[in-house]
Amino acid sequence: MPESRDVRRLRRGYEAFNRGDLDTVLRSVSPDVEIRDREEIPDPGVYRGLKAAREVLVRNTAEFEGYRIEPEEFIEAGEHIVVVARQSGRGRTSGAEVAGTIVHSWHVRDGRVLGMRAFSAREQALAALGASGHDAGRPSPGAGCTAS
Q1: Cα Rg for the chain, rounded, in angstroms?
Q2: What pTM did the predictor assign?
Q3: What are residue 40's DSSP bridge partners?
Q4: Residue 109, phi then psi, degrees to nearest 5
Q5: H-type helices in 1-148, by residue range?
Q6: Which of 11, 7, 47 is nearest to 141 (CA)?
Q7: pLDDT by residue (tens digit) across 8-64?
Q8: Are 77 and 135 in contact (CB under 8 A)?
Q9: Nearest-CA neighbor of 106 among 129, 131, 133?
Q10: If residue 75 lies in a helix (H) or strand (E), which one and from where to where?
């Protein structure tokens, strides 16, 4: 099945992020968006609003050279899309290579991103959606798609 419009939009957002085009990334983001860090990182934050979203993106890209997020799987669950991705980069200060899985759970309604919550594992994101009453265990169109 073809990808949904929201999956295509998110895919283009990741591509724009990897090019450093933050304006395109933020184009579909609601002015009152809420972004939540992974809970297991030191001092996880909750960021509200478009200005805060931009600051998070700028901060994340400033800390690393060549930082990229490559989507590997999209799972649709109602108004949520879970994206399992591979992140990589090199710490600007330490020079250490960083690579691993990052999972984003996007809340999308009428083509607008209302929120994003980060996780370290696919199972965490799906469990969080399951706890909120969504059928997140079943991939839908666009699931398993790889970035190109």
Answers
A1: 15
A2: 0.84
A3: none
A4: -140, 130
A5: 5-19, 22-26, 50-62, 122-131
A6: 7
A7: 999 999 999 999 999 999 999 999 999 999 988 888 889 999 999 999 999 888 999
A8: yes
A9: 129
A10: strand 64-77
